[in-house]
């Protein structure tokens, strides 16, 4: 069985729930008092998708403005970006466009998977961003839209399934090279071919 | 390295109830001493200026700003603290604020001494801890106590004489006060405001007592008498509070001004201009009593200059003393002969006549000569070759004994300035932390020990090289036994 | 390395930082009087009224004036600045503020977008400058080249996003509530910009205490106008300590045992914690260009609040020393060699620190570089302040001011496992080195684990604390011993009677008293022995160490001296366990 490594970065305004989504996906847990990310956090999780094993390596970036300058480093080598907004705050949705523009500027490949996620559907009653608005935008950008709740877990795993599903067929050469690296004893996280992107 | 000493930069008294309208802030100023320019710290050479006469708008603005800042800080601090702002530390200045009466605020600004490093003269090192808050607090409070002793409270003067009357009183008094205070010469003695008593045997003491009784009987107008010998207190019939004021006034201000012998290395800068007689009272402008030169002569320090000159106008000094909860006024006369200083408080509606002065003089000059002789024989001089110096103060009877200061004015320190400051630090610690005993070994290996028990404080500076804590402990025990056989310290 | 783009370097040189802070005292100079823009243009306001007005809480109007004052300092939308490309002269600022005040609303300038684009152009140039070469190839240099800050944090472009100032006005009753609250706090800390803009308040929302910030700024400005510097003022219970450093003003209002000089040290630590987030270069530059910049957008408040809390009771900050986990020397050597081996593989690690909570377990440094205790303490605080480093590997830029306040290092911060309090910080100057450091981290943890060291360390952490009876000097109730050469200190657990928090606080106050007396600038002490009502205190400074100890109040001097000697012997015998020696790559 083959193992694929997929680099994903989570982007979006501060406080929309990027870390919560990541924690929900990686540990299936939710922390009421999730504190804002400092710099960027790196997490990984291996899941099975159909016949493949996919190892997600995620950059959970800080949304705070002061770390914005760091973001391009995390895009590099990424196969997918998840841009998150908070459905209860229209402002966070507006900022999505900036992030998408940034991502497109840096990772404009055909295979790049762009997913836009509206978080906090558990407080539907406070919704400020209509699904239709986001949907229209996503279609125009060729992005996938999910509305999820890191709190309840609703739709979180689906996001990553979507990424797995949309992964381009692998380049056999490259894949081979990766495999050889991956055979090494099961270290929790392995070195990625980061240098290639430099 | 050159050290510039701490000096009074300015002093002001203002009334917070006045000048409330914008543009009229200058009405707050009751008194201002010193220059206030926008570039403060420029050494002021000019004499003092009153708040209202002949100053430029720029100066006035400077004064208003000084007051504004103080008031702002008082207000601001009340947001956080129940008491008002007391001390302000800036790199180059120290300010102390005192609120003696409702609506009246006194503020003293002193320059912080700096060390100029010759290679880098533009960047002096300011020795913040060389100016001690508690000493400034003591001097500003003393200035107020003296003022009320000679003039009553600000409020009373304001009520009776109006703003201008108050301004005049303040100006008369404080101009002289601040020009003769030397900030760098303040020490522990100023904190205690204590009294050095002359140690006397029973017989000479009874002699003084009977002398005073005799004088008071001969001149019933004399209500109280204070008798000092060679800067030391022998007899006082005033209550303790006033004894302290009179004693400190005599020793810190009056006698130094009279007997400023040029041999002393230290001279307060303004003293040359001072008028020894009557310089603290409400009435100014009297000339030096030239008859008194050296301590052996006799005559009035406050009273007629020349007893033989009958035509002479005698200006008088009045003081205010609480007697049975009632403020009474007395005429204040000081007479000096043969190292004896006699302060007399006369209860009288009218100023004493020339005849009175003459009779008193005759009576005193005869008696005092023999009395002085007797006291001289009886007072023992303490040896000062010991390897230690000490200061003892009993806050109950205000008695002070010190070999850390010279016996008479200008009380030169017998230890380094740093050590003197360290002693004042220790006193502050005793005041606020209830510590009973402090041993400190300085970086240059001098031991300084402070002890407090009940109301007594005892400080010793020991110059033993390489002494250990245990050595010093033993030594202190010995000194205590030597010097204070009858005083017990809890060990 | 050039950190400025060509456009802005011209700007920064000319703009004056604290150009005329005294402007609020409008009557100060004739120039100022002419430039009066206040509500009463033809009637100059004196400094006093300016200040008095501010205190009048009954008059809400005055609050508005204050804000106008700030306005006039520099409340300019970015777009205008960029277009005109000129330094902010006071009079121009005033004109602009006037213009601003006339705007009915403070909504975003419609021209904003194009200006942002222009701004990005400028930034594009600076960003195209390549980052520094690998530091390890340049050991001959005194310091490694660090990333310049503006590569990371572009100068903000949305200055006009600032909330409309009118919103910050609170009703006068709100003022009073805030003030009631402030009085209850033992220690308030405020940080503001030179122009009086609130940046941080330890308690409550700084926007609600906006008038207080204005006054604090006025105090600083007033004193500095006399070519002097405000240090502190005090009431009988409180100290109001002011530190004006760089473009920031830090104010601490404390009713604690701390002496003003000690609070000053704390404020400097706080300043450094700010620098650690944005570098000194960046801090100065942003305020040179935008005097009214809202720094809050760049700061993580939690770092500051956590640091203030730690400094309240942790002697590390007072002593500027690190506390270690005691352990035997062999284990230490094993840990060090594990770290060195892993680090030598890729040579990108400059420093590695193994830490449990806020105590150091191991420290390996590059042989040419050193970290000072204050930088290490900032790192401790950074991790201590947040839970967000748990459960993930983290990569963050950090500036270590003592090491180099101009640029960033990059920290890989990660716990050794989910359950442990132990974490590794690996520092590199290469911002792309995450995966290298990640690998180093993994290797270290793996090796430590496979050799059983991890377990041994965990055990050492469990037994890290010792009590006085354990070391058999029962006469001593508590002590703190600082090793000067290693900048480390050790102390036992607080035993009776210091188990109660109030008593412990009081004891700490006694240490503060001793420390203050040991370090008085013009009359420092070497030995202090003080008998108080509740304890006997001892302090001793020596070229190798600094020592504080507390005894029973009734102890005799011979027994105290005896106990100190006993403690000396114990210290000598156990110093290798108590203190760690840094190893080098």
TrEMBL record, chain A:
Alphabetical UniProt keywords: Nucleotide-binding
What is stated as this protein's family in its record? Answer: Belongs to the small GTPase superfamily. Rab family.
Q: Which Pfam families match?
A: Ras
Spell out the protein name for this chain: Ras-related protein Rab-22A-like
UniProt superkingdom:
Eukaryota
UniProt key word Nucleotide-binding: yes
Q: Which PANTHER family match?
A: PTHR47978
Q: Which organism is it from?
A: Oopsacas minuta
InterPro entries linked: P-loop_NTPase (IPR027417), Small_GTP-bd (IPR005225), Small_GTPase (IPR001806)
Q: Name one GO molecular function term.
A: GTP binding
Print the organism lineage: Eukaryota, Metazoa, Porifera, Hexactinellida, Hexasterophora
UniProtKB/TrEMBL annotation, chain B:
Q: Which family does it belong to?
A: Belongs to the CCZ1 family.
The scientific name of the source species is Oopsacas minuta
Q: Which domain of life is it from?
A: Eukaryota
Task: Output a single Gene Ontology CC term carried by this record.
Answer: Mon1-Ccz1 complex
Give start and end of each CCZ1/INTU/HPS4 third Longin domain: 385-479
All residue ranges annotated as the CCZ1/INTU/HSP4 first Longin domain in the record? 9-152
Question: What is any one GO biological process for this UniProt entry?
Answer: vesicle-mediated transport
Protein known as: Vacuolar fusion protein CCZ1
> Which InterPro entries would you find in this protein's record?
Ccz1, CCZ1/INTU/HSP4_longin_1, CCZ1/INTU/HSP4_longin_3, CCZ1/INTU_longin_2
The chain positions of domain CCZ1/INTU second Longin read 222-365
TrEMBL record, chain C:
| Compositionally biased region (Polar residues) | 9-47
Instruction: State the residue spans of region: Disordered.
Output: 1-47
According to the UniProt record, one GO cellular component term is: Mon1-Ccz1 complex
Q: Where is the FUZ/MON1/HPS1 second Longin domain?
A: 348-445
Q: Residues in domain FUZ/MON1/HPS1 third Longin?
A: 475-574
GO biological process assignments: protein targeting to vacuole; vesicle-mediated transport
Q: What would be one Pfam family of this protein?
A: Fuz_longin_1
Q: Which residues form the FUZ/MON1/HPS1 first Longin domain?
A: 187-300
Q: Organism's domain of life?
A: Eukaryota
* Family of the protein in this entry: Belongs to the MON1/SAND family.
- Write out the function statement from the record: Plays an important role in membrane trafficking through the secretory apparatus.
- Tell me the PANTHER family matching this sequence: SAND PROTEIN-RELATED, VACUOLAR FUSION PROTEIN MON1 HOMOLOG
Protein name, entry field: Vacuolar fusion protein MON1 homolog
Look up and give the organism this protein is from: Oopsacas minuta
What lineage, starting at the top, does this entry show? Eukaryota, Metazoa, Porifera, Hexactinellida, Hexasterophora
């Amino acid at each position: 069985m083959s193992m694929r490594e997929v680099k994903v970065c989570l982007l979006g305004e501060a406080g929309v729930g990027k870390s919560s989504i990541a924690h929900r996906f990686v540990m299936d847990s939710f922390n009421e008092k999730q504190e804002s990310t400092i710099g960027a956090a790196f997490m990984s999780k291996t899941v099975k998708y159909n016949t493949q094993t996919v190892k997600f390596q995620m950059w959970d970036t800080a949304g705070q403005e002061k770390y914005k300058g760091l973001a391009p480093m995390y895009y590099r080598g990424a196969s997918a970006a998840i841009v998150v907004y908070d459905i209860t705050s229209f402002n966070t949705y507006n900022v999505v466009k900036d992030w998408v523009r940034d991502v497109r500027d840096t990772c404009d490949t055909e295979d790049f998977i762009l997913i836009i996620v509206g978080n906090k559907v558990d407080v539907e009653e406070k919704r400020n961003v209509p699904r239709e608005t986001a949907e229209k935008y996503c279609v125009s950008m060729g992005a996938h839209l999910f509305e999820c709740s890191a709190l309840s877990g609703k739709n979180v795993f689906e996001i990553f399934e979507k990424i797995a599903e949309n992964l381009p067929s692998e380049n056999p050469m490259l894949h081979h090279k990766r495999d050889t690296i991956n055979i090494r004893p099961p270290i929790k996280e392995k070195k990625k071919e980061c240098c290639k992107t430099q | 390295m050159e050290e510039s000493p701490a000096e009074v930069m300015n002093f002001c008294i203002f009334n917070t109830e006045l000048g409330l309208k914008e543009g009229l802030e200058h009405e707050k100023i009751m008194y201002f001493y010193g220059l206030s320019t926008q570039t403060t710290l420029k050494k002021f050479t000019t004499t003092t200026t009153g708040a209202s006469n002949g100053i430029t708008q720029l100066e006035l603005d400077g004064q208003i700003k000084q007051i504004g800042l103080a008031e702002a800080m008082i207000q601001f601090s009340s947001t956080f603290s129940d008491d008002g702002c007391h001390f302000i530390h800036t790199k180059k200045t120290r300010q102390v604020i005192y609120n003696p009466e409702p609506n009246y605020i006194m503020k003293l600004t002193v320059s912080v001494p700096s060390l100029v490093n010759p290679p880098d003269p533009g960047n002096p090192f300011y020795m913040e801890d060389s100016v001690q808050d508690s000493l400034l607090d003591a001097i500003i409070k003393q200035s107020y106590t003296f003022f009320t002793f000679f003039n009553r409270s600000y409020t009373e003067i304001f009520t009776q004489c109006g703003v201008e009357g108050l301004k005049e009183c303040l100006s008369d008094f404080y101009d002289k006060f601040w020009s003769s205070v030397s900030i760098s010469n303040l020490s522990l003695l100023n904190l205690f405001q204590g009294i050095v008593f002359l140690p006397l045997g029973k017989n000479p003491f009874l002699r003084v007592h009977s002398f005073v009784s005799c004088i008071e009987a001969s001149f019933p107008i004399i209500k109280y008498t204070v008798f000092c010998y060679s800067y030391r207190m022998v007899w006082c019939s005033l209550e303790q509070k006033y004894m302290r004021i009179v004693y400190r006034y005599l020793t810190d201000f009056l006698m130094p001004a009279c007997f400023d012998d040029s041999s002393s290395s230290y001279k307060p800068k303004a003293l040359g201009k001072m008028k020894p007689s009557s310089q603290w009272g409400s009435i100014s402008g009297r000339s030096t009593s030239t008859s008194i030169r050296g301590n052996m002569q006799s005559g009035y320090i406050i009273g007629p200059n020349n007893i033989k000159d009958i035509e002479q106008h005698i200006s008088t000094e009045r003081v205010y003393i609480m007697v049975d909860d009632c403020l009474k006024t007395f005429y204040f006369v000081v007479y000096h002969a043969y190292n004896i200083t006699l302060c007399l408080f006369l209860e009288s509606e009218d100023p004493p006549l020339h005849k009175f002065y003459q009779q008193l003089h005759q009576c005193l000059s005869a008696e005092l000569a023999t009395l002085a002789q007797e006291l001289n024989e009886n007072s023992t001089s303490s040896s000062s070759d010991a390897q230690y110096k000490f200061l003892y103060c009993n806050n109950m009877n205000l008695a002070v004994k010190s070999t850390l200061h010279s016996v008479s004015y200008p009380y030169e320190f017998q230890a380094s300035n740093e050590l003197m400051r360290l002693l004042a630090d220790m006193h502050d610690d005793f005041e606020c932390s209830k510590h009973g005993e402090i041993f400190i070994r300085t970086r240059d290996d001098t031991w300084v020990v402070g002890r407090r028990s009940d109301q007594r404080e005892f400080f010793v500076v020991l110059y033993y090289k390489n002494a250990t804590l245990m050595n010093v402990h033993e030594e202190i025990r010995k000194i205590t036994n030597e010097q204070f056989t009858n005083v017990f310290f809890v060990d | 390395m050039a950190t400025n783009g060509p456009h802005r370097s011209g700007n920064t040189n000319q703009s004056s930082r604290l150009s005329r802070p005294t402007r609020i005292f409008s009557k100060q100079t004739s120039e100022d009087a002419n430039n009066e823009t206040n509500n009463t243009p033809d009637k100059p306001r004196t400094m006093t009224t300016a200040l008095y007005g501010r205190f009048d809480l009954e008059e809400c109007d005055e609050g508005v004036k204050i804000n106008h004052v700030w306005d006039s300092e520099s409340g300019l939308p970015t777009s205008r600045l960029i277009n005109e490309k000129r330094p902010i002269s006071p009079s121009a600022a005033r004109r602009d503020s006037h213009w601003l005040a006339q705007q009915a609303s403070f909504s975003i300038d419609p021209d904003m977008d194009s200006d942002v684009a222009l701004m990005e152009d400028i930034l594009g140039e600076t960003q195209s400058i390549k980052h520094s070469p690998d530091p390890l190839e340049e050991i001959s240099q005194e310091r490694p080249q660090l990333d310049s800050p503006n590569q990371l944090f572009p100068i903000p472009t949305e200055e006009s996003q600032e909330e409309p100032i009118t919103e910050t006005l609170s009703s006068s009753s709100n003022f009073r509530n805030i003030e009631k609250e402030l009085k209850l706090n033992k220690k308030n800390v405020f940080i503001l910009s030179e122009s009086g803009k609130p940046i941080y308040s330890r308690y409550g929302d700084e926007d609600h205490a906006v008038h207080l910030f204005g006054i604090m700024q006025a105090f600083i400005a007033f004193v500095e106008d006399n070519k002097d510097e405000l240090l502190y003022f005090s009431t009988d219970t409180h100290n109001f300590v002011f530190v004006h450093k760089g473009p920031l003003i830090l104010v601490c209002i404390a009713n604690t045992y701390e002496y003003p000089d000690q609070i000053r040290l704390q404020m400097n630590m706080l300043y450094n914690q700010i620098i650690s987030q944005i570098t000194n270069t960046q801090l100065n530059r942003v305020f040179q260009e935008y005097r009214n910049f809202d720094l809050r957008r760049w700061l993580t408040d939690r770092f500051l609040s956590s640091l203030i809390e730690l400094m309240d009771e942790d002697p590390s900050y007072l002593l500027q020393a690190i506390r270690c986990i005691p352990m035997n020397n062999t284990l230490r050597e094993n840990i060090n060699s594990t770290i060195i081996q892993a680090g030598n593989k890729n040579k990108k690690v400059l420093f590695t620190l193994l830490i449990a909570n806020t105590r150091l377990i191991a420290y390996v440094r590059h042989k040419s570089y050193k970290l000072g205790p204050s930088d290490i303490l900032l790192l401790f605080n950074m991790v201590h302040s947040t839970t967000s480093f748990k459960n993930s590997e983290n990569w963050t830029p950090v500036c270590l001011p003592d090491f180099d306040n101009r640029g960033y290092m990059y920290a890989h911060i990660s716990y050794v496992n989910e359950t442990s309090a132990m974490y590794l910080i690996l520092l590199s100057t290469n911002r792309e080195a995450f995966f290298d450091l990640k690998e180093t981290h993994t290797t270290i943890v793996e090796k430590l684990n496979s050799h059983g060291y991890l377990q041994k360390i965990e055990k050492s952490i469990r037994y890290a604390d010792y009590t006085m009876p354990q070391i058999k000097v029962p006469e001593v109730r508590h002590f703190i011993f600082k090793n000067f050469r290693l900048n480390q200190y050790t102390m036992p657990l607080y035993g009776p009677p210091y188990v109660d928090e109030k008593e412990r606080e009081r004891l700490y106050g006694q240490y503060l008293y001793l420390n203050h007396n040991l370090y008085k600038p013009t009359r420092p002490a070497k030995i202090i022995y003080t008998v108080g009502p509740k304890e006997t205190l001892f302090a001793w400074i020596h070229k190798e160490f600094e020592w504080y100890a507390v005894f029973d109040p009734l102890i005799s001097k011979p027994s105290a001296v005896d106990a100190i000697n006993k403690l000396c012997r114990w210290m000598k015998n156990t110093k290798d366990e108590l203190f760690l020696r840094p190893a080098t790559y």
